[in-house]
Amino acid sequence: MSNFYILAIITALVSFIITPLVKKFAIRINAIDVPKDERRVHCKPVPVMGGLAIYISFVIGVILYNGILTTSQLGIIIGATIIVMGGMIDDIKDLSPKYKLLIQIMGAVCLLLSGVRISILTNPFREFYPYLNIGWINIPVTIIWIVAVTNAFNLIDGLDGLAAGVAFIACVTLMIVSIINGRLEAAFLTAVLSGAILGFIPYNFNPASIFMGDTGSQLLGFLLAAISIETAIKSATAFVIAVPILAFGLPIYDTLFAMIRRKANGKPIMQADRGHLHHRLLDMGLNQKQAVIIMYFISAALGGASILAMQISNQRAYFLLGVTSVITVFIAWKYGIFRHKE
Hints:
Layout: H1 2-28, E1 32-33, E2 46-47, H2 51-66, H3 71-92, H4 97-113, E3 120-122, E4 131-133, H5 138-156, H6 162-181, H7 184-204, H8 213-231, E5 233-234, E6 238-239, H9 242-247, H10 249-264, H11 277-283, H12 288-311, H13 314-334
Antiparallel strand pairs: 1-2, 3-4, 5-6
């Protein structure tokens, strides 16, 4: 286990060292976020594409660990490379949603070809038949999971350090779950990714000198979605749905609420607005740091629930997920998350 921590420290140092180089590269190719609407909370142009530093550090860490990549690791890296390339293009010139979706599906297909897929689910309804083999449906289920989490982290990237910090907390959560469940490869991957994120956060926390951009937010969502498939497997083969949903609860719930809000108010689902949780916290009078720290605490609480879900029975794990969802929906309704704001 000590090797994992050493590797996390190494990747954190690599990320910390190369982020300024990535910043210079972003400025040179004009990958800069210029504030041009009310949704943006920064007041001056800031270089983006910081996710490239996280990607490079992650790949270096994976290679350093065992030199020869396993099939699943190769699939994750190839898929991540596709996501990063698409994100870099999007950071330079905005891609349409259909092209972003196509790139995300290509990344998910790389995972499927390498054997990273959701094929057996835990069954909460039958005590003597606890697992459900979903057969060929594993292909669309895996693609939907990867695309959904990738976009969830992309949408939550609205304040300095928010997406990076939430992803780091999710990484630590998955690493603990992996260790408890004996999934050492998943634990190693989360350790490497958490180090890569940690080295980037000092440059990204408010006031940020560089944004991760779509390059980073989509990369983090993709990698966490991929690693979670291996992390949340219990009893040899079965995928515990409640674990990653709770671990990624903040971006997942925020994205679902955004879709419901836009649909209920007659707006296109893909149309951006100022209704996300971080916008609501700012409207309540909090500054960026305060809003981000509150969301860190929410992520940590959901992460704790995720760890608990892995250690209890299937039925209780789904019950915990249900109770958490009901409480979250009630709080969201009470504080007007479903009301549309331009």
